[in-house]
């Protein structure tokens, strides 16, 4: 009895068409009391209405497992990117059906309107594509696929609630990482907005002697080899390799500020993953350091094949601490744990000039032993407020305060530059390109 109710009663839903047709039949019955000329027309309409209902009910409910559905997506989702999800809906009825599909996506998206409508031919499968953009790392749980099937008249629907619950982990933006990796392999990084860097001089890493071709630098001519071969030969140099590159990520409270859904911490994590992958691709060693009020993870720089997997796992686990970051502990850790001169890319955020000045002494000490690049963020919402035309006195006050904040950010850049510290002040959405440009510039200028 319980199964009968579940399969044949609870699964029955009346559509808007059913109620509209019922309203027409009832209206005809009422009108017949005042217009006898309608005769048996209302009764014919009632019989037709009941007949369609019975036929459609029999067609929809005579087969138990009449619909099959499956959800397909990548094993991992990429944070901040559009991730494709496919729904495969198979119609096992011997006639075409109309399908109203609701997919129960993870609660993190706060969206209860993942709703699709399609017509599926007999014995065929319909494929529905949609995308999801997560903005936080972690585990996401999908629920059921609910399908409401109707037949020719669409008076009633039969609900199929298929349990397709599964979990997917959202990792730092590996799709962005792969995009830049492919561009680097094909020498097409400029398409992503990266500047071509002119190499100044030559590194000390000699590779081989080769025959001169048009465009080679005359300063690299090897005269001894030219005399021996009787043709112009040049020395070929490569960029220095195995240089340590550390992405240092601040997990303090200021890094939880959101822009376009993602926090500054997640922007920094995504940029760190891309920078690390490009560094390893260029045969440098990549490492990760995280800190807040206490030290977090320290993954030593390496360039072996499994290093990128270790970096992804480390970045996946990072969370904001919501406390003031301790730059003194960071300096002590770098001094004690990193002996070789390295490129230190510090992702942080300064709320004010005073906030930076409290940490400047530690930044200077790090810069004495390593090549330090401090990355912090422009507030794009403040920039929008500046671009708006002031309509009243309140708007003028707001714009004055915003201008003060923007001016302080520029002062921070100038003070750090005076101390010989490289700086990147960037909107969050341009972070990855700006960081890669700075890394390529440092490699081209042989500063490390």
From TrEMBL:
Instruction: Output the superkingdom of the source species.
Output: Bacteria
Membrane-spanning ranges = 12-34, 40-61
Keyword presence, Transmembrane helix: yes
Key words of the record? Membrane, Transmembrane, Transmembrane helix
Q: Which Pfam families match?
A: DUF58
Q: Where is the DUF58 domain?
A: 210-375
| Protein's recorded name | DUF58 domain-containing protein
The organism named in the record is: Haoranjiania flava
